[in-house]
Design goal:
alpha/beta; 43% helix
Length: 487
């Protein structure tokens, strides 16, 4: 049997590929025609308005030169402070939930209350401080000045709101930090073409406000009051590897994002006058240039004040990159290296103070003598110390006053050395008298017992005693008779 000949290749006559080839062929033909026309009549293709052409050329050159930047000096130290990541958005758009989800991803710990900044180790040589921006103009201005990265939250079910446009206008006036958009409440939209259309519309609107190609993330669903792990993972990867801008304004000015505030004022003065001048200690990482004591600083929402003292404290959340030999071989972090520091939210377990370190212990863990000692020192308050304290009124006096002398609201007299000796002697005399009285009472008891015993003996031998007396009388009469005969 003869084999069937193979079918020949048929060229496509319709479709995207054919249309693309046709378009390319037309362009080539047009360019060939214009080239021939320019060669035949060059004056017909020259510019006609000289001034208009010069303006177009100048504008193109200006746009090109604006893209050129002067090389800026990076003044960040070898161990840089944590990067500031601000979460901005209108109310009820999921800002707190996003911070809790990111902290859960980085540290494997649940944070119930997001209060104040939370510092987290995100990599071998990187730390990030997450904080939430309030919805008022002054707070937005302060956040736009210091934030390295802004996570702009947008409610996909509602769209762009006034708070988003206000913050973008404020940020443009202060250097426009890195901005990434986050779309939430996507699960409330209908799945299908309308969902894709809404995503596309919001993306182009976001690009119009920020810049073309700005990154936009989608948080679809929630589980256990946290966002989807895959969506949070994509966002966390970009945060961990993102490079931030070096702004000259921040490099020339020192600023501190406060992690903890402590009032060091005298309680007696505060109780006497609630509006007296306070002495406050502020804790946080220093960024920008150096900060000197005696300098005037502006505290947001309070005003300008003078620094009395600047002290260096140990790092409460050190990066794991210090031990390079251990970290270079590994790509991921250990559980011990996934640190978190949030004193306002009560997270982290360690609080570094000027003269002390406060350690939060877990009662469920195994305890040893060191933990008990630390807990005893940390739980002993000032009132407890005062209750056990002793002091003397006069420098030469040997007596002391104890707080036990004021129990139950009854004041007792102060005890001096001489009175103490006399009291001791009187106590000894009282003890001797008590002993003598005890001896007398013992003798009286013994006498009474002997008398009772004799009475019982007398009752038992009553008849025997009478018979014995008669015998004695007879013997005595016989003796008298013998003595009389002898005489």
């Amino acid at each position: 049997m003869e084999e069937d000949p193979q079918k020949g290749h048929r060229k496509r006559k319709s479709g995207a590929k054919v249309n693309k080839k046709k378009k390319r062929k037309l362009q080539d033909d047009e360019s060939a025609i214009t080239d021939d026309a320019r060669k035949r009549n060059p004056k017909a293709f020259s510019f006609q308005a000289v001034n208009k052409t010069s303006r177009i050329v100048h504008r193109a050159l200006d746009k090109q030169t604006r893209k050129h930047h002067v090389p800026e000096v990076d003044r960040t130290p070898l161990e840089p402070p944590p990067s500031l990541v601000a979460v901005v958005g209108p109310p009820k758009c999921g800002k707190t939930t996003l911070i809790r989800s990111l902290v859960k991803h980085y540290t494997k710990q649940n944070v119930n209350q997001v209060k104040g900044p939370l510092t987290v180790v995100t990599g071998k040589n990187r730390r990030c401080t997450f904080f939430e921006c309030p919805n008022d103009i002054s707070s937005m201005i302060d956040v736009a000045k210091v934030a390295d990265l802004v996570l702009l939250m947008v409610d996909a079910n509602f769209g762009f709101e006034m708070e988003i446009f206000e913050f973008l206008n404020i940020a443009q006036a202060h250097g426009l930090p890195r901005i990434m958009g986050v779309l939430t409440h996507i699960d409330m939209l209908k799945v299908g073409k309308s969902l894709n259309r809404t995503k596309r519309t919001l993306k182009h609107r976001f690009w119009t406000e920020v810049h073309n190609g700005a990154k936009l993330f989608y948080l679809s669903s929630m589980s256990f009051d946290l966002y989807n792990k895959r969506d949070v993972l994509n966002l966390a990867r970009f945060i961990s590897v993102m490079k931030f801008k070096v702004l000259s304004w921040r490099g020339d000015h020192p600023y501190v994002m406060v992690d903890r505030v402590e009032d060091l004022s005298d309680p007696a003065e505060v109780q006497a006058n609630s509006k007296c001048d306070r002495k406050v200690a502020l804790y946080g990482w220093l960024r920008g240039s150096n900060l000197l004591s005696g300098a005037t600083v502006h505290v947001c929402g309070v005003g300008d004040h003078v620094i009395s003292e600047v002290a260096l404290l140990p790092d409460p959340c050190p990066p794991p990159g210090k031990d390079k030999e251990k970290t270079t071989k590994r790509r991921t972090l250990n559980e011990k290296e996934r640190l978190i520091y949030g004193p306002m939210a009560g997270v982290g377990g360690l609080i570094y103070d000027k003269d002390a370190i406060y350690i939060q212990t877990n009662e469920r863990q195994k305890r040893n003598e060191g933990d008990d000692l630390i807990e005893e020192l940390s739980t002993k308050t000032l009132n407890d110390k005062l209750t056990t304290a002793e002091f003397s009124l006069f420098s030469g006096s040997t007596g002391t006053i104890k707080n036990d002398d004021y129990n139950d609201g009854q004041r007792r007299k102060m005890v001096f050395g001489d009175e103490g000796d006399s009291d001791a002697e009187s106590e000894d005399d009282n003890e001797d008298e008590n002993e003598q009285e005890g001896d007398d009472t013992d003798e009286e008891v013994e006498d009474e017992e002997n008398e009772d015993f004799e009475d019982s003996q007398d009752d038992e031998g009553f008849e025997d005693d009478d018979a014995g007396e008669d015998e004695d009388e007879e013997i005595s009469s016989e003796e008298d008779m013998v003595v009389g005969a002898a005489r």
